[in-house]
């Protein structure tokens, strides 16, 4: 997918999830790509769009043995290295949107540290069918994250890596690497890349029509114009 120089993706700049949903309706794909409403932004005002990079994690069957705190520190490091690595950090580029299938588990896979690591790579946003912790820091850092759960636990003894850059199920939606993901306060929508151009053009028309109509109302009410109607 390469660096963020992508004409089709660029057409999604400024589009709302509602506009994209309307665009999907216009091309005959109503209700397609709507990720479960239970997957919500961690902080209000988050918005992002990008091309999907996918990863899947599954519940572990391994029991954590009894050990000393010193042994546990070593064991936990090995778990992250061997059983539950974050290999997507090695392949992401600016304009990518991480789509993480955690089998719906309320496990704190994502947090403030990895959030900053992803931001440093130029990741546009993250949607997780699973858990995110450190949510106050995620909000403070303005890392755009959408998750099913606000979690507390770590992945150790709970999750294992299964696959990278394969189709995943996120909030009841099949997501393919390269699909377009758009997310804001309303939730998350995924546009199959095969129809992404047509959907963007229809969605842009919906947005501009809405702006014109609301601008007339703003003016008739004597309201100062804001960025949402300019």
Please write out the topology.
Elements: H1 7-10, H2 17-26, E1 40-41, E2 48-59, H3 69-83, E3 96-101, E4 108-110, H4 112-120, E5 125-132, H5 135-141, E6 145-150, E7 159-164, E8 168-170, E9 173-175, E10 180-184, E11 187-191, H6 196-221
What does this 3D model show about the protein?
With 230 residues, the chain is an alpha/beta fold. The chain has one domain (7-221): 3-Layer(bba) Sandwich (Glucose Oxidase, domain 1), CATH 3.50.30. The chain contains six helices and eleven strands. The protein is elongated, with a radius of gyration of 19 Å.
What distinguishing features does this structure have?
alpha/beta, 9-stranded mixed sheet, 11 strands, two-stranded antiparallel ribbon, 26% strand
The end-to-end span amounts to: 32 Å
What's the average pLDDT? Answer: 96
Instruction: Characterize the largest beta sheet: strand count, sense, and whether it forms a barrel.
Output: 9 strands, mixed
* Helical content band: 25-40%
The coarse overall form would be elongated
Number of DSSP helical runs: 6
Kindly report the name of the CATH homologous superfamily: Ribonuclease E inhibitor RraA/RraA-like
- Looking at the overall shape, the CATH architecture is 3-Layer(bba) Sandwich
Order of helices and strands: HHEEHEEHEHEEEEEEH
What's the number of extended β-strand segments?
11
Q: In CATH, what is the class?
A: Alpha Beta
Total tally of structural domains: 1
CATH topology: Glucose Oxidase, domain 1
Report the portion of residues in β strands. 25-35%
Question: What Rg do the Cα atoms give?
Answer: 19 Å
The low-pLDDT segments are none
**Structural class by secondary-structure content:** alpha/beta
């Amino acid at each position: 997918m390469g660096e963020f120089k992508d004409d089709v993706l660029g057409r999604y700049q400024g589009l709302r999830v509602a506009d994209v949903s309307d665009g999907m309706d216009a091309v005959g794909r109503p209700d397609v790509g709507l990720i479960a409403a239970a997957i919500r932004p961690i902080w209000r005002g988050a918005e992002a769009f990008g091309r999907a990079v996918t990863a899947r994690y599954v519940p572990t069957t391994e029991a954590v043995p009894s050990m000393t705190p010193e042994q546990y520190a070593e064991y936990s490091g090995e778990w992250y290295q061997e059983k539950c690595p974050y290999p997507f950090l090695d392949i992401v580029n600016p304009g990518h949107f991480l789509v993480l299938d955690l089998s719906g588990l309320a496990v704190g896979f994502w947090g403030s540290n990895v959030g900053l690591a992803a931001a440093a790579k130029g990741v546009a946003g993250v949607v997780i069918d699973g858990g995110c912790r450190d949510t106050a820091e995620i909000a403070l850092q303005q890392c755009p994250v959408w998750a099913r759960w606000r979690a507390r636990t770590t992945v150790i003894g709970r999750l294992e890596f299964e696959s990278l850059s394969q189709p995943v199920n996120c909030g009841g939606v099949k997501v393919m690497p390269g699909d377009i993901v758009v997310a804001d306060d309303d939730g998350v929508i995924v546009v199959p890349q095969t129809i992404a151009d047509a959907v963007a053009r229809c969605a842009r028309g919906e947005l501009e029509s809405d702006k014109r109509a609301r601008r007339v109302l703003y003016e008739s009410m004597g309201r100062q114009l804001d960025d949402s109607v300019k």
